[in-house]
């Protein structure tokens, strides 16, 4: 098997070369993330599962390509995928916390060593010729569909948070473009196991780009709106509802003196003019009612002020929580075949 045998299929060779170039760029897309991990010496909550699954997929596709003719271009890109994913996983394990390091190592051993060799040995000894290639082809197709479905969680997060922070447009564009190249490669080669999963990859790539254009300016508009809102302090000072009447302690003293004076007057005149008692008590009641009315106004003004301040404080708390949210997810979809 040599790469020159693909000259018999010039379209397949052309699409295969373009697919290799674009997939090469897709494989290098997470490089800045791992550079950040190295510089900060911390995985910062990033997940290793996408890279472990991508390594497993590349290994299976290489084994499948060795059973096919004119499939050298599948071998080349997946060999590079195995190399770069191994580097990513090694960096992740080196800087991950101890418990996550152990979990990641167990997953690599169980999936990429035990799982791969179980599939390889079982298909080698239990199937022969075209049957073996067909069984491996279906296994590769299922794995590729699973890998292509990985961005669904990212798209769900974009819709929920209205943020495209974890779904850059460039990566989505190259994923869709790579899927197109490998689809036509599989179509020309009459290999449905290569062509079919890339249809799903192309559709998901287009959906990601649509979501990007829908939500790319959402956060900017939201920030502009919040900047136009008055702060809590300025609202308290300027809103008429928050102009709470001040409590007058001197007035209470004066009221008390008035009550004592009126009571004294009552005691002096109670024997001489009994009928004047009611008219004498009435001013006392009026004074008490006026004070109670003023207290009610103070309480109502405080309630109205609180109803204004609480939503603004909620906005400020939400903004603070938003800035504290850690970027804790990265995704990679392999379009190797």
From TrEMBL:
A Pfam family recorded for this sequence: MtN3_slv
Principal place of residence: membrane
Membrane topology: Multi-pass membrane protein
Localization: Cell membrane
PANTHER family: BIDIRECTIONAL SUGAR TRANSPORTER SWEET, RAG1-ACTIVATING PROTEIN 1
Top-rank lineage group of the source organism: Eukaryota
Name of the protein described by the UniProt record: Bidirectional sugar transporter SWEET
Alphabetized UniProt keyword annotations: Cell membrane, Membrane, Repeat, Sugar transport, Transmembrane, Transmembrane helix, Transport
One cellular-component annotation, GO: plasma membrane
GO terms, molecular function: sugar transmembrane transporter activity
